[in-house]
Structure formats: C-alpha cells, structure tokens
Write a structure and sequence with these properties.
3 domains
Amino acid sequence: MTGFGRGESEGWVTELRSVNHRFGEVSFRIPRNLASLESRFREEIKKRIKRGRLDLSCSPENPRKSEAFTFSLDEALSDQVYQLLNRLKDRYGLRQDPDLKDLAAFREIFRSQEESQDIEGIWEAVHPSLDAALDSLDRMRLLEGGNLTEGIKESLRVIGGTCRKFMERSPQVVEMYRERLLKRLNEFLPEDTIDQGRLLQEVLVFADRSDIEEELTRLMSHIQQFHAAMDGDGPHGRRLEFLLQEMNREVNTIGSKGNDLMMSQWVVECKCELEQIREQIQNVE
C-alpha cells in the first residue's frame, strides 16, 4: 500500500516510502557506517509490514558529524606512481613535470580507515526514529485502507447484484432455447410430425449443459468469504488473492455455459469489477 512516514530522534532522520507489491521488499539508502545495522532495520520493518516495496532512508541531520573516517597517504605507492609518471614524461619527450594534480588523480594512493564506532549506541539513537516513521506510515496506510475497503466492497456489491440477475435469467434462457428450437422445427417439419419427446430431451440436455446454479452458489460463497476476510484481523492479502482467483474461475465458467448475449455482457461487467479488485488488493497485507 502506498504511504510515507518520517521520524526523528537524537539527530537522526528516518523516512519510509511504500508502494504496491505482492511480496515484501525493502531497499536501503543509508550511510556506510550504518551498513551493519541493515538486518536490524529489516527485522523491525517485517514485524509491522508484510507486503509492499519499501524504500528506507536514514541519515543524520548533520552529515559531517556522522563521518568517522581518517585518511592517510600510501607513500610507497605514491612514490611508485610519481616515478612512472616521470618515465612516461621521458619516454614521450613531454615538457611538463608531474604535479600534485596528476598524483591526486590516482585515488589508490589515499587510504581511508573507518574509526571504531559504538554500533549499539548508534542503534539506540536511530531506533526511535524508525519506530516513529513506521507509526507515521501506518497512519497513512490505515487512512488509505479505509477508502480502499469501500471501493472493494462496492465492486463486490455489483458482482453480487449481477449474480441475482444470472439466477433470474438462467431459466429464461432455457425457455428461449426451447422456443427457438420449436420454431426451427416448424419451419422444416409439419407440426403434427414433431416428436415432442425428442424435443423435450434436447431441451433437457441444453438445460443441463447450461446450468450455472452450482457456479453461482460457489461465487456467492466466495463473496461472503471475501467480506469476512476483509473485516477480520491480521494479514489476509494472500487469502484475498486466492478467493479472487476462484471468483474469476466461476465467472469464466458462467460465461462459457451461459449461451446468452445478455449474460455474456454481465460476465464482462463482472470481470471488469474483479480486475479492479485485483489491482486494489495489491495494496492489502
């Protein structure tokens, strides 16, 4: 679910940005001296966020104070570089002597050494800013989640209403098939020669082949389970995805068995609503 959270503590600022994703992923933008704390950041985040792609940035308010590096010169290597530069000068007959700028271009002659740091002390200072950022992110996600739930429930109401229309239409489809079949037979055969028993048999075969009562029963059950999952506690995004797949399957079967233009249009409407739900539940944990 999309959202933003920010927290501050003891000179540290932590920001979190989340976007939709089926799985839980965390990317970091933190100073090098916090690299050893990455696993702790990840553990704290996973306690509260199960799904979504999360970008975390953590930095001190005063970056200069956070730097804990000393630099030294590798004299042996710099001497070797200087000698090589002079050899190049002599080899190619260059007039200009190597200078400080030429030497500085070889970064390898400089060594950086990270000073020892109190990692536990840094974590104690940073941790509250992470908690505050997670709290802020949760508030935004809860607000968006309320709007999201209303949108999903509205789509479910539309699908439920369409199910009732399917139930009413299904017997009419069978009767219309019987009338069409009888009309075609009358066009080619005298009325008194039509085998009514065979006609009834054909209609019964069609009725059995186009019966969607079982699919409608399962679809309505899935809708009820979907509502129950959304109103329940705890993460349920994966369960909603499974129910949505099953609802799609039932709607597809209804479409293949419907044998009616109006019902085909209703199937398309249902699939549009299901697609909207599919996009929305990417936000749901």
